[in-house]
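Input record, target 12 of the design panel.
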Protein backbone atom coordinates (compact mmCIF):
# COMPACT_ATOMS: atom_id res chain seq x y z
CA UNK A 1 0.00 0.00 0.00
CA UNK A 2 1.10 3.55 -0.52
CA UNK A 3 1.32 6.02 2.33
CA UNK A 4 -0.15 9.50 2.05
CA UNK A 5 2.20 11.29 4.43
CA UNK A 6 3.59 14.36 2.67
CA UNK A 7 7.32 14.04 2.12
CA UNK A 8 7.63 10.33 2.92
CA UNK A 9 8.91 9.45 -0.55
CA UNK A 10 11.55 12.16 -0.33
CA UNK A 11 12.57 10.94 3.14
CA UNK A 12 12.87 7.36 1.92
CA UNK A 13 15.07 8.53 -0.95
CA UNK A 14 17.29 10.38 1.52
CA UNK A 15 17.67 7.24 3.63
CA UNK A 16 18.56 5.19 0.55
CA UNK A 17 21.15 7.77 -0.48
CA UNK A 18 22.62 7.82 3.03
CA UNK A 19 22.93 4.04 3.07
CA UNK A 20 24.62 4.04 -0.32
CA UNK A 21 27.05 6.77 0.72
CA UNK A 22 27.94 4.88 3.90
CA UNK A 23 28.27 1.50 2.20
CA UNK A 24 30.46 2.84 -0.59
CA UNK A 25 32.68 4.77 1.81
CA UNK A 26 31.79 8.21 0.44
CA UNK A 27 30.78 9.25 3.96
CA UNK A 28 30.93 7.75 7.40
CA UNK A 29 27.62 6.22 8.48
CA UNK A 30 27.13 9.03 11.01
CA UNK A 31 27.85 11.78 8.47
CA UNK A 32 25.55 10.21 5.88
CA UNK A 33 22.68 9.87 8.34
CA UNK A 34 23.26 13.33 9.82
CA UNK A 35 23.06 14.83 6.32
CA UNK A 36 19.91 12.85 5.53
CA UNK A 37 18.34 13.98 8.81
CA UNK A 38 19.08 17.63 8.11
CA UNK A 39 17.49 17.37 4.67
CA UNK A 40 14.50 15.43 6.00
CA UNK A 41 13.99 18.01 8.75
CA UNK A 42 13.87 20.72 6.08
CA UNK A 43 11.26 18.76 4.12
CA UNK A 44 9.18 18.30 7.27
CA UNK A 45 9.28 22.04 8.00
CA UNK A 46 8.27 22.85 4.42
CA UNK A 47 5.36 20.44 4.65
CA UNK A 48 4.27 21.85 8.02
CA UNK A 49 4.18 25.31 6.46
CA UNK A 50 2.24 23.99 3.47
CA UNK A 51 -0.16 21.54 5.14
CA UNK A 52 -0.05 22.43 8.85
CA UNK A 53 0.80 20.12 11.73
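The sequence produced for target 12 reads:
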Amino acid sequence: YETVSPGINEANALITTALNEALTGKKTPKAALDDAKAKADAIIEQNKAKYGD
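Residues 10-51 form one domain.
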